[in-house]
Amino acid sequence: MGEREAVISLSKVTAELGGRPVLRGIDLTVHRGEVVALLGANGSGKSTAIRSVIGQVPTTGGGIQIFGTPRRRFKDWARVGYVPQRTTAAGGVPATVTEVVSSGRLSRARFGLMRKADREAVTRALELVGMADRAKDSVDALSGGQHQRVLIARALAAEPELLIMDEPMAGVDLASQEILAATLRTQVAAGASVLLVLHELGPLEPLIDRAVVLRDGCVLHDGPPPKALGQHALPGHDHVHPHTHAAAEPIRTGLLS
Ligand SMILES: Nc1ncnc2c1ncn2[C@@H]1O[C@H](COP(=O)(O)OP(=O)(O)OP(=O)(O)O)[C@@H](O)[C@H]1O
């Protein structure tokens, strides 16, 4: 693979939440153009690890670099698209689909003004996730899968080089899962780098270059995505997945038990 540029690099990162160590010396690198899945049981520290990258969790040790710049000095956040875990993003404020996606473009809009190019980028992002026909709808009126597509469109609106996503497939219906997989494929083909928290590889499996598996705040595995070990092999697996069309579903991968 040679010396490819690291777009994200964590070195011996430690973090505590509520006085309890949650990250206990994490090493994690995403190279340019790579798709890295962050796997592990509930509570293993996956969300905390990616939230430390975007500065939402203070670290107690180690180093984090984004595009080669120490995180504390990094300012070019328009290059980074972040899709939070949907449960944490669901607010009570009604907004239209366009408003939510436009908020993702603000980092690119000069002087905070949405120009024609910005509005076009918002429309393109909505088209990518198949939500252009719902542009004027309230996000309250959307299904879980559609809501997730809007959050991804919001991240794509700034045309980021790096996408960081926390469980983008959780609680998403199969049709939306297929659209999200296709959207991600397009982004990767265009050169985007991706770090995403997943519970199962599912329909994204063909896109994943490397998997990093956490257990109890430590890296347990860093290498090829683990092969299927049977459904829901993970200890502590308590997420609800849409299994209504079992026959039509892609093979599920239970991640290292
Ligand atoms: N704000 C907080 N205060 C105290 N402890 C927290 C806080 N947020 C998370 N934790 C704890 O930190 C640990 C790691 O949480 P984290 O959300 O990073 O795990 P995860 O691997 O993403 O799990 P999940 O699959 O459930 O999202 C868990 O034990 C969790 O209970």
From TrEMBL:
One of its GO terms (molecular function) is ATP binding. Keywords: ATP-binding, Nucleotide-binding, Transport. InterPro entries: AAA+_ATPase, ABC_transporter-like_ATP-bd, Metal_Ion_Import_ABC, P-loop_NTPase. Pfam families: ABC_tran (PF00005). Residues 236-257 are annotated as: Disordered. Residues 8-241 form the ABC transporter domain. This is ATP-binding cassette domain-containing protein. It comes from Streptomyces endophyticus.
